[in-house]
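Hi support team,

I'm filing this because I wasn't sure whether my run with FE2/S2 (inorganic) cluster finished correctly. The job status page said complete, but I'd like someone to confirm that the output block is well-formed before I use it downstream. Pasting the exact inputs I used:
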Amino acid sequence: MQITLNINREECPLDLDPRTTLLDALRNHLGQCGTKKGCDHGQCGACTVIVNGRRINSCLTLACMHEGDEITTIEGLGAPGALSALQGAFVRYDGFQCGYCTSGQICSATAMLDELREGWPSHVTKDLTGEAALSDAEIAERMSGNLCRCSAYPNIVAAIREVAEGEG
Amino acid sequence: MTAHHKMDEPDRRNRLDAMAQGIVGVGMDRPDGPEKVSGRAVYAHDGQVKDMLHGVMVRATIAKGTLLGIDEEPVKALPGVRAVLHGPRFLRNPAQGAAGEAPVQGSAEIAYFGQPVALVVADTFEQARHGAQSLALRYDEAEATVAPGEAEAETPEDKQSATGDLDAAMRDAAFSVDRTYTTPPHNSAPMEPHAAIAEYRDGKFTVRASCQMVKYNLDELADSLGVDAADVHLLSPFVGGGFGSKLGISAEAVAAALAARELDRPVAVALSRPQVFEATMRRSETRQRFRLAADADGRLTGVGHEVLVSNLPGETFSEPATQATPFLYRGENRVIGHRIARVNRTCAGSVRAPGEAVGVTALEIAMDELAQAAGVDPVELRRRNIPEEDPSRGVPFSSHMLEAALDDGAERFGWSDRPKGGTRNGEWLIGCGMASSSRVNLLNDSAARVTMNRDGTALVETDMTDIGTGTYAILTQVAAEMLGLPPDRVETRLGDSDLPKGAGSGGSQGASSSASSVFLACERLRCEIAERAGCAEEALTLKDGHAISDNRQQPLAELLQEPLSAEGVIHPGDAESRVRQASFGAFFVEVGVSAVTGEARVRRMHGSFAAGRILNAKTARSQCLGGMTFGIGMALTEELMHDPRDGHIVNRDLAEYHVPVNADVPQLTVNLLEERDPWTNPVQAKGIGELAICGAGASIVNAIHDACGVRVRDLPATLDKILPGLPERAGREG
Ligand code: FES
Ligand code: FES
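And here is everything the job wrote out:
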């Protein structure tokens, strides 16, 4: 089927099998391989992209459901020489080792900080109606959908904390 | 120019310390970082090419038998399907680490549930997946053995040893422990599933794959395909984690290459996550009996360690769980026993720190039990049992840092004023535990080429890999240090089989071996520069692109009329047998055990480690964080479950096989101790990637005991094992 996806502010016309996930459309049809496949089952977060400002697992959604949506992938957040604040912090804090989960971590963290700013509570938030504090526990809880087998977790939390505090 | 060096004698020159650039050891950011954080790093399945087809592997769904037939036709008739492939060259299981030849091949005989037996290739991934799911296989099923306890076990003579009289030592002991510990099978679960993209042109294969050890993988792949290694070009510049599972070539790379040749089109094959669980190496489950005999002061007089592990019939690898037992603690009466059960389960092989990961963990739980029995502080018990020399081989230690690590760790953690075990904090019972860590230190043959250009840049080249371990960073640093260049003037190229053959990543020898080869190449280059500058190499200072000698400073470019290139090759030698080499460390941890559910959570965890010269403080620390987290997984959640009927792995995905998530891991602290071990290699670095898992799980299990009195001897320590022991203490307010 013919569809057009808006990826990183660019219109991308595609002719796809309707079974194609957003993840496979990005990787196999557009050659945008920054978004990774770790499980294809919504269990690891490696494929996280930002759709209309919200983080989602791109392996769990079909590409044809996203015509007209604004899709942002890791390639759209920054590039070597022009890294986003989070990307730069991940480098400085060594918020990765093999780097395979990293695209997902950074997309996830980018949208997560918006969620925090907008006051969304999480499982560890004490007061559901008040503001969520920017504690390590909050960051860790909200980033637990993104697995990292290299376990850069403490560094991921530190990198996100620095960026969030810098903004706050 | 090639400089060879064999490690027969200790190297006490500590040459890196005499260099002027001051970049080795510094926690420099990874040069490959910007590419990784921006999604530009090209992993195996990212090197997509025009006209590429997609292949999906098909698995066997019986534990043992013969594949009678494959109903290809209906699948071939599906839209987009190009081929259904199978046959004698398909891999039954991945190659073991450093095999350098094809593993068992052929899809006709089935040895375990989940064995890859066929490949469906189609124009798109969706079509190939549908074809693979539709493929019907016909079998002649045979009686399988899937439970290690029921299987026949081999007792290889060279894996048994006994000195003195352990039975007598146990009889005469003031305090003793005789317990059996069990650990379940594990999966490495790297975040990048095993994948390959193969092309075939003019009789030559180009394969992008996810490999830990390119020089061996090249030979394994060529041998599997039945071609000359010269006709295969293997590329693995970025690897999304390995942890042992990518030591040897695996099924998808061979299948992709066969398909590319057959169809004359590039073919990409990636294992699905369930296939990673079923068709790549698992760590064998272990049953480990420990006998510890001690005198009235808690000094060991005897150590017995007898293990039962498993693997497929005919496989040479068997989990070396007793590897550190012969040298970690004193005791003159010793028994080592090792049996291998032959079962129809997914092939067993290396998973991060084969041997010590589970062996030291069981030993360190046993030591905690001994400390309790003897009424000695667990740290003190270990200090009292540090041997003067390797008690089994009678050779000296190259250096011994266990006591330093214990003291440093205890101090930093605040061991002496830890909360009293069982202190109640709301729902949580608090407890602390500790464990020693140790891992044998290895060196492997490794080669690298270093080229200095006239523009003041240098290029480091080797087929060595960076699987997240920091190779790009550390090789850049070693070359920058030796040649006196800012690190941004040095480029490191890795993971290409056309480059000099490096050690590969595995067994924690990659960093030290490949860094040594770069060091040797640079030393050779320094000699050449010194000659041109008219001084002795030792008198030459290289810094910031300048050569300084006899108070004369000149830009390096002036000394280079043309690019200057040298190769360095390190070889292991007699140092291996003349001394016992190991890295050491200590873990300290505080847990909370829920008095309501029995759930255990790590509240804080510290590790102090000594692993020779630290080449990059930042990446070395990250390796330790990773190891400690593997320990958290091993202690609390990770367990492959095999169906008792057919051995199939029931929890073959990341929703059911629980690797630690961010919220399971507190802000771990790590301290790296300074050490120069002259026997190891010319850069005096030792293995660190695996050290931090060896015993980590024990510190947590010991802390759980401290918190609630429940001694878990069957890992992981899930709530069902803790809860029944709780009620009596749970009501007590601290
Ligand atoms: S690949 Fe989408 S969650 Fe794992
Ligand atoms: S960096 Fe390797 S999985 Fe996260």
